[in-house]
Each structure stands twice: as C-alpha cells, then as structure tokens.
Design goal:
Blueprint lengths: L6 H26 L8 H23 L4 H29 L1
Helix pairs in contact: 1-2, 1-3, 2-3
Keywords: Membrane, Transmembrane, Transmembrane helix
C-alpha cells in the first residue's frame, strides 16, 4: 500500500479552511456589536455563514478522505468556498461603510 505524499498538504489546507472560515464571521459579529455599525451587515452574515459551513464540511471530508484525488478535490472546493465567502463578507462590508 503506497502512502499519499500530499496528505500533509491536505491536512494543513483543511485546517486553513477551518481557520479562515471562522475569522471573517467572527470579525463581522464583533463589528455588529458596536453601535455605529450598519445593520445591513447582518445580510452579509446571513449569506456568508452558510457558505463557510459548507466549506468546512468539504474541508473535513477532504482531510479524512481515503481516495487522494477525491480528498484533494474536496479540500480545493472548501478553499474556493472560503475565498468566495471572505470576499463577499469583507468586501461587502467595505462597500457598505
């Protein structure tokens, strides 16, 4: 049985997805706790948080996958979803301010 040389990359990429899926919603939630924050940021969170949850799901499935090609593809999908939701949430917040 051959070992997969990309497994550490998948593992650390998946951990990166999880960290970057938690950081933007946390930052926007802290922003909403201020009185001067626009309330339209709630709409960004309502769209961004489910996308981040799907990204975490794909990342965890990719980290624990036994077929290297499919697992790598899942981590890649998770990375792309986190990038899209990060641009949506943080870029949308910058446009609203």
């Amino acid at each position: 049985m051959a070992t997969d040389p990309n497994q550490p990359l998948r593992y650390y990429g998946g951990l990166g997805v999880i960290v970057f899926a938690i950081a933007p919603p946390l930052m926007l939630s802290l922003l909403l706790s201020q009185d001067s924050a626009p309330r339209s940021v709630v709409a960004l969170l309502a769209v961004g948080i489910p996308v981040n949850l799907v990204a975490v799901y794909f990342a965890v499935r990719g980290m624990a996958g036994s077929v290297p090609e499919a697992a790598g593809r899942r981590v890649g999908i998770g990375l792309a979803l986190v990038a899209v939701s990060g641009v949506l949430m943080l870029g949308g917040n910058a446009l609203l301010r």
